[in-house]
Every structure is written in C-alpha cells, then in structure tokens.
Specification:
Layout lengths: L9 E5 L4 E3 L6 H8 L17 E5 L1 E3 L4 E3 L9 H9 L6 E3 L9 E4 L26 E7 L11 H13 L5 E2 L1 H13 L3 E7 L3 E7 L6 E7 L3 E8 L5 E8 L9 H10 L3 H24 L6 E8 L1 H8 L19 E4 L12 E4 L9 H10 L8 E5 L4 E6 L4 E6 L20 E7 L6 E5 L22 E2 L1 H13 L20 E4 L2 E7 L5 E3 L1 H25 L6 E5 L8 H7 L10 E5 L1 H11 L3 H11 L1 E2 L6 H10 L10 H5 L4
Parallel strand pairs: 1-7, 9-11, 12-15, 15-17, 18-27, 20-29, 21-23, 27-28
Antiparallel strand pairs: 1-2, 3-6, 3-7, 4-5, 8-10, 10-11, 12-13, 13-14, 16-17, 18-19, 19-20, 21-22, 24-25, 25-26
Helix pairs in contact: 8-12, 9-11, 10-14
Length: 651
C-alpha cells in the first residue's frame, strides 16, 4: 500500500472506534483488516458471501473532526447493487470488499457482519413477581345490528362490556374503531378486547384470545435489552439484546450530550437510532416466540436520565450542565404509535420515573427489584456502567447518587480492551513467584495453561480483554507486586520477569504474548484507577451522608456488575472493605424492575411513591467528593486502616 500522507482520507469504524488514514482507492475491507476491525468475510473479498456488509454513517462527526458521507466511497456498481438487492439489505448498506475510499468516511459494522458477535449479558433474572398486569383480555358477544335501533357497533360493544364485565366507563382508542367491524365480521360478532386499567379499550380481535403479551426494555447507554413476556403467566418467552448504536456519537453519556450541544437538532438523530434499535429488538423477540408485533399490547422501559430523555424524544442538554435538571422526574405513559414503536397501535409505553439529576429510571427499576425501601438492614446497591448509580439506606432513609466512571469498566479506553464477546479474556490469575499469568476467555471453559486450551478457542482465538478481565488483571498485578499502591507498574521487576516490558518512560505487563499481543499498559491502569475512584468516592459520600460506617449487604447490578468477582472489587478498592459474604450480584436488576412494572400494576404507584422519597446527593457540587476521589485513586485507597478497622466496616 502507498505511504500515508495527511491528505489521505480518514476511515472510522464503529462500534470499535478504530480509525486510520488510507490512500484513495483502498477497499473498506482492506482498511478494516489492516486495523484489526472485526469484519467478517468468508469469500476473501470476491463479493460472493455478502458477509462484509457495512452501514455508511452520514453527517458531521465532531468527535473525529470529519464529515462522513456515502459520496466519499466509490459509486455502487451494478453487480454490488444486484447482490445487495437479492440479500434484502438496507439502503445504507455497502459491501466492504467493493466500496473503495474516496474521502473521509465512518462506517458501522453491524452485528451480523462481525465474526465475534457481542455477548449481551442481560438475561432476565428469576424473581418473584405478582402477576396482575395493567392490560387484560375480555371476551364479549356483541348483539346483531337492529334496523329499528340505529346504534353503531361501538355503542353495542361498550354496552356489552359494561354489562358482562361490570365495568363503569370505558374510553376507546382510535385503532379499535378502525378495526372493530372487520373483527366483528371475522368473529361472528364474538370478539376479544384488551382493556387497560379497567378504563380503556386498546385492541380488538375476532373470536377468543386468552393470551396477551408485553415487553420490558432496558435502554442502556452501551447495551439495549428486551424481554418479551406472557402477561397471563408472567413467563419470559424470549429475550434479546443489541449494542446501543449511539456509541458512534460518543462512548460515554456526556460525550453524546456534547455532540448534541455542538449540533443543534442532533437529539432527533440520536432518538431515531435508539428507537430503531428498540424496534429491531421487538422484531427479534417476536420472531423467536412466533408472535406478531401487534400481539404486544404493553411496554415498560427503564434507562439512565440521558437515555430516558433521548428515548422519549426530549433534549438532554440541561443534564449536561449544573444543576442537571430533568425535563420530568415523573413516570411517563404514552401511546406507542406516538413514539414510532412497533407494537399494537393501541398499546402503551410506561417509562418508570427518574429520581433526580443523573440517577434515572434504571435506578427506579433496581429499587423495584431489590426493595431497599422495604428492609431494616442497610443496603449498598451499585449499578455499574459508564455512569455508576448507587443507593445506600433502608426503609427509614434511602439516598442515591451517581458517579462518572466512564466506559473503562466495559473494556473501552483500554489498549487491548473490548466488550464481552467470544475470545475476550474475562478471568486472570498471576503466580506470585514467577509472575506468569494464566487466564480464561469467553467461550472456553479451560484456563490458558490447561492441556487443549488452544484447540477449543472460539473462532479468531484470543481477541482482547473485557471489563471483568481488566479488573482481575490489575487486581492480580497489585497482589503480585507488579502494580504499586500509587498505580505505577513496578519497573524494578523487569529483571525478574520478561513479562514486564519498558514502554517509553513507563512499563507494561504482557498478559498474552502471541498474536495479537495483549498487554496491560500504564495507561490502562490509570483508566481503571480513575473509574474505580469515582465509584468508591460516590459510595463513601453516600455513607457519610447517611451516617453509617458499615453496610449489611452489597449488591452489584448491571451487565458488568453481574460479572465482577467481589474479591477483586475489594482488592482494587471499588467498594468499602467488608465481609465478602455480604457481597452478591443482583444481575440486570434494572431490567427485572421493568418486568415487575410490566406484570404487576401495583408496582407502578409503589415505585412512583418510593422514588419521591429518595434523597439525591449531587456528587458534582460536593467539595468533599473531590477529596474522597483523590484518596480513592490509590489501590485500594488511602484510608483502609488496620485489619480491625476494616472488620468494623460491615456487620
């Protein structure tokens, strides 16, 4: 390939964030391979397999200082056009083997084109839920028309419902009126209607229908997860998850807010892509369960405040500056068709309330799942993500806060980091004498020093390190003396181990010395220090405000939180020192809370009341937070005290 110049076009690949300059005429597939981008191709670039499809991003991308356009790729030729048409590809799709670079361009590599597809670790959790949904089916036989009594069919339907079901008064949404007479004809005047809150007819079908469906969605900043439920049994019929495509506008939440601030009207673009993703998930779970989208009559949603606002079509700009004001902290109940969400046209979306500032509806979902407001013991609940949200307290007093941990815990901002996918290192152990490592990767049950490890690796082999892996790697490095308390990698050990290699003026630790080499750099350690310090300082601030020096239980929530080993969280100083027996995973508690609100109508007024009682502590405006943050940069942190002091931190 020709040597690069500053005039060469810049090519950016999302969601990996990898980018580079390439000579004009370079095929996208060649550029992707040279950067190590996860882009599939079985036919070797001969446009036979169609696996290298990518989506072209249109518009201004200040993060990369480019204007991306489909015009900056070679024109689509007849062969490529026919191939894409035959595969029913989206209009924005191109074959990376055919499309050649002509100017600055950003492209998305969809999950279907990735060799190492994202493992979405947000399965539904087993949880006791009272089944009393807000929507119920009512079968009714509507009297035949009578020429001497000229009432319309809607009047006859409502009269029959009021008589047969003992209802007082009913409203009817417009889709029912449009569907009513065809349903009456098809059902021989016998129909089933869906009644919401015993007050509104939202759907009608011919004949008898005893099963209605709902969907609970966790709109996360990194991952969006959906769970399709049978509203009668409460069973989860199908679950699915996708990466949040908003990542191309910024990996962390405040980067997305900054993008909107710099590009007036950009919130509409971010709203459109998140709603499109939700609609894709709805299609996925419906296909898996063998039902139609119109069979879904109710939806609940949770998300952090910025995702909450963008999903609802509200600008999050005010959340990007003090005093971090929400447009609304109350629950939102809206007809799905008003948000272009493809469920039954009469179906509703209920979005749980936010608490305040950057503590959102996802934390309300966690509260519903964990019920700290209904316990005497003191709980510490931490939902770990790009923005950690935490709760401390009990039925007497419950406090909440958020800390900007950033995306390092999820593998971003790490030199060899990646999100959880087959081939990613997720468990690490380091021998204290030899300083030699061993590890496990996602998709392989063997440790790296077990016989046959290389034979059962996922396709692509060892590809990087994910969030739980980087936590364990740095904690093990600290325990082995490779990382000092101030976070510096101990270069003095370079004489003892070839794993410790000088990198300019600092050192790195080689975890995997094959291809690709995977190292823990000094920058990686600093990124985790910053993230864990923000988390720990937020927890300490809440405990001080609550007036407690110890807690009775610690619960890690969220997709990443579910994978954290409590021992390593303690070693790094992510949480206050305590007995490991009181630390456990709550799984995707926010998603569980969304399911509870979907399946139990009483949960909605309950969480609305409890959220109003939570005291929000704003870390950004508390002077003591900065002191706690600086102290927490040390590993574990500067105020551990003696072993007896640590024992006092928990009951």
């Amino acid at each position: 390939m020709a040597s690069r110049t500053s005039a060469d076009p810049l090519v950016v690949f999302s969601p990996s964030g990898k980018k580079g300059r390439f000579a004009a005429g370079t095929p996208l597939l060649q550029a992707a391979r040279s950067l190590g981008v996860d882009l599939d191709s079985v036919c070797g670039g001969h446009a036979m397999c169609g696996r290298c499809q990518v989506d072209v991003v249109e518009g201004d991308l200040p993060k990369h200082d480019i204007v991306s356009s489909a015009e900056n790729l070679s024109a689509i030729d007849e062969f490529e056009q026919q191939f894409l048409a035959q595969s029913h590809a989206l209009p924005t799709r191109r074959l990376a083997c055919h499309a050649k670079v002509r100017g600055d361009v950003a492209v998305d590599v969809p999950a279907s084109s990735q060799v190492h597809r994202q493992v979405v670790r947000k399965p539904h959790e087993d949880h006791a839920i009272n089944i009393d949904p807000v929507v119920r089916p009512c079968f009714v036989e509507v009297p035949e028309p009578d020429i001497d009594r000229p009432e319309g069919d809607l009047h006859r339907l409502l009269t029959a419902l009021l008589q047969d079901w003992g209802l007082r008064e009913l409203n009817v949404v417009p889709p029912v009126l449009r569907q009513l007479q065809s349903a009456l004809r098809a059902g021989g005047r016998k129909v089933t209607v869906a009644i919401r809150n015993d007050a509104e007819v939202i759907a009608v079908w011919p004949g008898v229908r005893d099963r209605l469906h709902g969907i609970a969605v966790d709109v996360g900043s990194t991952t969006v997860a959906a769970h399709l439920c049978d509203l009668r049994s409460g069973d989860v019929l199908a679950s699915a998850g996708k990466m949040n495509p908003q990542i191309r506008f910024g990996e962390d939440l405040m980067s997305r807010v900054s993008y909107i601030m710099s590009n007036p009207g950009a919130e509409a673009k971010l709203t459109a892509v998140i709603r499109e993703t939700v609609n894709e998930l709805i299609g996925d779970v419906c296909a898996e369960a063998g039902i139609d989208r119109d069979d879904i009559v109710e939806m609940t949603a949770v998300g952090n405040p910025i995702m909450h606002h963008l999903f609802l079509g509200i600008s999050p700009i005010e959340l990007g500056r003090a005093p971090f004001t929400l447009a609304t902290n109350e629950s939102v109940d809206v007809v799905a068709s008003e948000m272009d969400i493809s469920i039954h046209p009469g179906g509703h979306i209920y979005v749980l309330p936010c608490i305040a500032g950057h503590v959102g509806a996802d934390t309300a979902g966690v509260m519903l799942a964990e019920l700290p407001f209904d316990r005497d013991d003191i709980s510490l609940i931490v939902d770990v993500g790009t923005n950690a949200e935490m709760l401390v307290g009990n039925r007497e007093r419950l406090l909440a806060a958020s800390s900007p941990t950033g995306p390092a815990f999820e593998g971003a901002q790490i030199s060899c980091g990646q999100r959880a996918a087959p081939g990613a290192i997720e468990r690490v152990r380091i021998d204290r004498e030899s300083l030699e490592p061993r590890f496990k990767v996602i998709g392989n049950d063997l440790w790296s020093d077990d016989p046959g490890f290389a034979d059962v690796l996922p396709a692509g082999g060892v590809t990087g390190i994910c969030g739980s892996g980087i936590i364990e790697a740095i904690a093990e490095m600290y325990s082995a003396g490779i990382v000092l308390s101030n976070g510096n990698i101990n270069g003095a050990l370079a004489k003892q181990s070839a794993r410790i290699v000088k990198d300019g003026t600092v050192y790195e630790y080689v975890l995997f010395d094959a291809d690709p080499q995977i190292s823990i750099t000094q920058h990686d350690v600093r990124a985790i220090q910053l993230a864990k310090a923000a988390l720990y300082a937020g927890v300490e601030l809440l405990m001080k405000e609550r007036g407690v020096e110890r807690v009775d239980r610690v619960r890690f929530a969220g997709a990443f939180g579910a994978q954290i080993d409590a021992r390593y969280a303690m070693v790094l100083g992510m949480i206050p020192a305590c007995d490991l027996d009181i630390v456990s995973s709550a799984g995707n508690a926010a998603g569980t809370g969304a399911r509870i609100a979907l399946l139990d109508r009483k949960a909605r007024p309950l969480i609305e009341e409890q959220v109003s009682r939570v005291e929000k502590v704003e870390t950004a405006t508390r002077p003591e937070f900065q002191d706690l943050y600086v102290a927490a940069m040390a590993i574990p942190h500067q105020d551990l005290g003696t072993q007896s002091d640590k024992a006092k931190r928990c009951r």
